Amino acid sequence: MSLTSALSTAQSSLSNYATQTSVISRNISNASNPDYVRRDAVLTNSTIGAQGVSIQRAQDMALFVRSITDTSTSSAQETLLTGLSDLKNILGGNDYETSPAVLIATMRDTLATYAAKPGEATLAQMAIADAVTVANGLQDASKSVQSVRYEADKAIGEQVQKLNELLARFETTNNKVYSGTQTGKDVSADLDERDSLIKQISSIIGVTQVTRSGNDMALYTSDGVTLFETVARPVEFETSSGFSASLVGKQVFIDGVPLAAGQGANTTGRGSLQSLIQIRDDYAPSMQDHLDEIARGLVVAFAESDQTASALPDQTGLFTWSGGPAVPVGATIIPGIASSIKVNPALIQSLGGDPNLLRDGGINGAAYSSNPSGASGFSTLLDAHVQALDEPVAFDAAAGISTSASILGFAAESIGWLELNRSDAESAAEAREASRFRSVEAFSNITSVSLDEEMSILLELEQSYKASARLITAVDEMLQALLAVAR
User: Can you give 116-143 as a three-state secondary structure string?
Assistant: First the structure.
């Protein structure tokens, strides 16, 4: 080997070491960045035998796909669990102390005590106060359920806006990757950015990626709807200004295709968006149906009947509603009745009413009185009220639970329905989060930076650098000696 070729080889080696050292330094500086994928500076040989450095990203596409899939399912399940927990909190949390079942049971016990001592005016006041608590509890619960729907709807709007922003950024980054690949540039940083955007998108909506020639990429939802292909597709949604029992939320459209809600406590949804729709359009409305059926059952159970031969229609008694004094007919959900149920003002003393009408009847006039003489020991009507809360009545099948149960039984089933779904959602959330953690950890083990490993490589490069430097020094000394001889 001539001195010139030896010097050239040494200089090339120093250049390669500098590139390798730069890559390692970049790795070390990004060791704590979860979106950074480790680079490897690999020596390559050209067709003429010269060595160069090729920068490669550590990557495992199968693990990456698994990690974003698990991110989608975990995000969906956690969002659903949060929504179901919010519905549980409406009823008082773990003990359900403000649930209709608990409030109605308390009222029934007070009515039973009053029936045993029908002449006690204080007990009449207590029974009516408990009835007011039941009515207020149903109103508050109905209002809170619609508030959960409104908050979910608002969150859907925020997620849609964020998704559109992420897709716009993805378009810009994908163009950089594609153009950089065509010109032979190092696009590692742009690939990191693109992968980071896919992770963020997957937490909102399930995503499938397809890599095409030139490092170009297309994105589709888990249902096959196009999210990005050459350009970002529009995601459209219009938020609602408020909700009621009869108001249906607006749909989310991706590239003109409506996005379906997730199904079941172990949700089929992918990403938070489908679970938010599920809470808004499935679980919260179902809970509203339960409240409305309980309210309807109470109005019917305490209705007054004509006690004469006049065949007058039944009228609302202890409980009335916005459609009173008419009594609901048939086992059919009346949307929003829970938000308007109240205790009949004719019984409330502070409003000029007579609490004894609960014992005697006649809220709607003398024809409806069961105790025309006003006997203080009359308890027949009170006993009938207590029994009515435990006797089977018909409920609308659309409510999703029993079609024949007592009012108390139906209210208890509503709690059981909610707790079963929340418990199943919690178990599924734990399992899916564990799966997400394992897949992300496995992917990180391959792509993340190990400081020990990088420092070890850096030490090896340092030794190689010294060897090349010594070679240059030796060549320099030999050249100096040759020049000296030539003089």
Answer: HCCCCHHHHHHHHHHHHHHHHHHHHHHH
Interatomic CA distance for residues 49 and 45, integer angstroms? 6
Closest by CA position to 84, among listed 139, 135, 152: 152
* Cis ω before 325 (30° cut-off from 0): yes
| 19 φψ region: left (φ > 0), alpha (ψ -120 to 50), beta (else) | alpha
Extract the tokens encoding 152.
């979910």
Please state the length of the chain.
487
Q: Which residues contact 286 (CB under 8 A, 6 or more apart)?
A: 399, 400, 417
Using CA atoms, how far residue 363 sits from 115, 155, 241, in Å, is 18, 46, 39
Question: What mean pLDDT comes out for the span 168-188?
Answer: 91
Between these two residues, 464 and 485, which has the higher pLDDT value? Answer: 485
pLDDT tens track for 427-467:
999 999 999 999 988 988 887 776 767 677 666 666 666 65
- Residue 148, pLDDT > 50, answer yes
Alpha carbon of 292 to those of 43, 142, 145, 182, 227: distances in Å?
A: 73, 8, 12, 63, 40
* DSSP state string for 375-427: -TT--HHHHHHHHHTTS-EE--GGGSS-SEE-HHHHHHHHHHHHHHHHHHHHH
Distance CA 397, CA 420 (A): 19
Of 45, 10, 43, 38, give the one whose Cα is nearest residue 24: 38
| Domain ranges across the chain | 3-59+437-486, 65-436
Question: pLDDT tens digits, residue range 84-102?
Answer: 999 999 998 888 889 999 9
Q: Which two tokens stand for residue 56?
A: 């490669």
Distance, CA of 360 to CA of 73 (rounded, Å): 59
Q: What is the rounded distance in angstroms from the CA atom of residue 480 to the CA atom of residue 460?
A: 30
Contact partners, residue 249, CB within 8 Å, separation at least 6:
149, 153, 156, 240, 243, 277, 280, 281
Residue 84 DSSP SS3: helix
- CA dist., res. 125 & res. 128, Å (int): 5
DSSP3 helix / strand / coil % (the chain, rounded to 5): 60, 10, 30
Amino acid in the structure at residue 251: Q
